[in-house]
Write a sequence for this structure.
């Protein structure tokens, strides 16, 4: 295949591994992505009883870093969040860390990312409590920016109110503009100042920060971006679900993979978000891609306040109060592909040739076990 993340990893993964000496976890993730939906993972041959068409279907890797394996997880996440939806205004808020800290953060990823979640929530919580409410937040971690550069930031969805601290009822918070382009619940510049103070205090306990870098961090305001709400809470969830299981780069953005490197599309936000092309040396492309592999078992989507898993009964009471009948907690569970297909009106196993018959499996293709035919990217 000309292009695609799998082709890039097949061509340049071994050279990257030899040069950069990845961890076993990084190498395993990139090997999963490289082998996804190829003969390396095995699969099966299916035949349509209506038209006789044959389809060879290879297994997917289901790795959370794989661009081909995110649809089902994203849709399952969306169905679960809709069960917890409050009929109120929601806001999309982004907390961004300064580039000056990137090198130190990369050396302390798990602690640094956890601190980002915690301080973002503590900042919003502090502002909300001043107005007498217990807020809620769902936060999603992204580590990439334009052209695959390292750029840790947090996408958050925040309801426009919360549970009253002095009672069990709901209180809607007023929107303020405060000289900003987009209205939000709190002044974003004040949020940025508190977020900076809290994060630097917490990160200082995690890592040694040189005085020059510390001075850079305090010389400029930290960015907290609040986007005005889109129409309706369900539309807000649909909008944010695109961020929930997004990966650093997808196959549709990769234009070509050849001996000259990898050519891909990216958005240049310094030039008004214009879409441009970039060609990187193959090893450099894989290096940039690999730096967005999250720490092993790191939880990159978290819920806080009234949206936290431990507050489901309180959330159900708020849903009932606001006129949105809650789904019984005992009826909530892990969403599977059949639930997603039913919600989207999809037919499982439909023949890609005639669109009428349901495919029947006639042959199983075993996965490749030979290290010679499917070499590891880990060099030890």
């Amino acid at each position: 295949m000309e292009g695609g993340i799998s082709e890039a990893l097949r061509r340049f993964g071994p050279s990257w591994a030899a040069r950069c000496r990845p961890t076993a976890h990084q190498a395993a993730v990139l090997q999963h992505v490289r082998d996804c939906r190829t003969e390396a993972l095995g699969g099966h041959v299916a035949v349509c009883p209506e038209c006789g068409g044959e389809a060879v279907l290879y297994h997917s890797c289901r790795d959370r870093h794989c661009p081909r394996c995110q649809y089902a997880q994203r849709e399952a996440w969306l169905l679960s969040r809709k069960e917890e939806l409050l009929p109120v205004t929601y806001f999309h808020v982004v907390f961004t860390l300064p580039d000056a800290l990137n090198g130190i953060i990369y050396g302390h990823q798990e602690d640094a990312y956890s601190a980002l979640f915690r301080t973002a929530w503590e900042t919003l919580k502090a502002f909300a409590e001043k107005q007498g409410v217990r807020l809620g937040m769902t936060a999603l971690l992204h580590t990439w920016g334009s052209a695959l550069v390292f750029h840790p930031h947090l996408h958050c969805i925040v309801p426009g109110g919360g549970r009253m601290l002095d009672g069990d009822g709901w209180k809607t918070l007023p929107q303020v503009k405060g000289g900003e382009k987009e209205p939000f619940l709190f002044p974003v510049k004040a949020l940025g100042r508190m977020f900076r103070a809290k994060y630097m205090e917490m990160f200082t306990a995690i890592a040694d920060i040189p005085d020059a870098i510390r001075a850079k961090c305090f010389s400029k305001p930290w960015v907290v971006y609040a986007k005005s709400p889109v129409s309706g809470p369900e539309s807000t969830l649909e909008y944010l679900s695109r961020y929930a299981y997004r990966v650093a780069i997808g196959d549709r953005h990769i234009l070509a993979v050849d001996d000259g490197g990898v050519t891909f599309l990216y958005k240049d936000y310094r030039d008004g978000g214009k879409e441009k092309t970039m060609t990187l040396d193959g090893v450099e492309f894989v290096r940039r891609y690999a730096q967005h592999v999250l720490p092993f078992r790191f939880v990159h989507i978290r819920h806080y306040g009234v949206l936290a898993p431990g507050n489901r009964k309180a959330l159900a009471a708020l849903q009932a109060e606001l006129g949105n009948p809650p789904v019984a907690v005992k009826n909530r569970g892990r969403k599977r592909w059949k639930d997603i297909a039913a919600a989207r009106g999809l037919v499982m196993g439909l023949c890609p040739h005639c669109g009428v018959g349901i495919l029947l499996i006639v042959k199983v293709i075993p996965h490749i076990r030979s290290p010679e035919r499917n070499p590891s990217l880990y060099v030890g």
In short: DSSP finds eleven helices and 14 strands in the chain. The mean pLDDT is 89.
